[in-house]
Design a protein that fits this description.
about 300 residues, alpha/beta, six-stranded mixed β-sheet, four-stranded antiparallel β-sheet, 8 helices, about 30% helix, globular
Length: about 300
């Protein structure tokens, strides 16, 4: 009898689907954290596969900074309509209006860190016991410390030194009242894996990932898009460049790179020779060596 070997993308897919089904089995009110970026789109697509022909059993949760790429919001709304899933939106602007958070001031101001309180408030309001994210270990050193099931205490905090073992793929989602989990089905995927899978499955992603003409300024070693929320610094010059974005976040801190990759095949070829991590163009990660880990300890994505 001949042996059957899975393609490596099939293995990653099977692992992710197993984790998504474990979440559905172990938790009462799980959700998918959805930003409109490729990783959250991938997780949503895998959830569709995991429970087909039934509908996705998880609502989508978007933490809206108010400073989003318009293209990402349009894509989000269209996808929600196509899938027929519930969308829960947590608003950072509402958190500011209620005095829950204070908006940053100055030339480096961003709303990115403010999402933490809005996320934790949304989790508490909707009694969410597991939030499924698209974090991957290859993205950033703090995310490399995450397990598939990542425990959060009743303050929403994460302790990277006190994580549960996951031997033999046994996942432990037991928690006390007030605590919750984050789940990361695509932890073992790389950026290259994600794009190869998107190419293979022909998954739709926002036009922002493809090369397009855009007004930008050079800041923090990347091209920051010009928007109503960008505070120009003295001496900065606006350029019109063909750029694309490797990762999507707050429009004020997400940098693009010059590129001619306007198809999935070209993106895969471009990513194959990249030497810088995809979050290398995110200004929020450059604030300190431990910027991401500090935010995650407080309850960030």
């Amino acid at each position: 009898m001949g042996k059957y070997y899975l393609n490596y993308l099939d293995e990653l897919e099977s692992e992710a689907i197993y984790i998504l089904r474990e979440v559905a089995a172990q938790f009462e009110k799980p959700v998918i954290l959805f930003s409109g970026g490729k990783d959250s789109i991938l997780v949503t697509y895998l959830a569709k596969k995991a429970f087909y022909p039934a509908a996705i059993p998880f609502p989508l949760v978007h933490i809206d900074t108010g400073h989003n790429f318009p293209e990402a919001l349009q894509f989000r709304d269209q996808l929600v309509k196509e899938l027929g899933v519930q969308l829960i939106v947590g608003s950072v602007q509402e958190s500011i209006n209620q005095g829950r958070v204070v908006e940053e001031k100055g030339k480096n101001a961003t709303r990115n860190a403010l999402q933490t309180i809005t996320l934790l408030d949304t989790i508490e309001t909707h009694c969410i016991d597991c939030a499924i994210g698209g974090g991957r270990r290859d993205e950033e050193k703090a995310r490399a410390k995450e397990r598939f099931f990542s425990h959060r205490d009743d303050f929403g905090s994460w302790d990277p030194k006190n994580q549960r073992p996951e031997l033999w793929n046994i996942l432990n989602g037991k928690h006390f009242e007030g605590e919750h989990f984050r789940a990361f089905p695509i932890s073992n995927w790389t950026e290259m894996d994600v794009w190869n899978y998107i190419l293979r499955e022909n998954i739709k992603v926002p036009s922002l990932y493809f090369s397009h003409q855009r007004d930008v300024v050079w800041r923090n070693e990347s091209w920051i898009p010009v928007s109503d929320y960008l505070i120009k610094r003295e001496g900065e010059v606006v350029h019109s460049k063909k750029v694309r974005f490797r990762t999507l976040g707050d429009i004020t801190i997400t940098g693009g790179l010059e590129s001619d990759a306007d198809t999935l095949d070209k993106i895969v070829a471009e990513v194959a020779v990249m030497k810088q991590t995809e979050r290398g163009n995110r200004a929020d990660d450059k604030r300190s060596e431990s910027a991401m880990e500090d935010r995650k300890k407080e309850g960030y994505f």
